[in-house]
Amino acid sequence: MDKVYIEYQFTIEPKESATEILIAELGNAGFESFVETQNGVIAYIQKDEWFTGILNDIYILSSTEFTINYQQKEVAQTNWNAEWEKNFSPIIVDNTVSVRAPFHENPNVEFDIVIEPKMSFGTGHHETTHMMIQHLLQLDLKNKRVLDMGCGTGILAIFAEMKGATQLDAIDIDNWCYLNSIENAERNNCSHINVYEGDALLLEHQTYDVIIANINRNILLNDMPRYVNCLAENGILLLSGFYKEDIAAINEKVTSYQLKLESEIEKNNWIALRYKKH
Question: Can you point out the beta strands (E) in 90-144?
Answer without folding.
Answer: 91-93, 97-100, 111-114
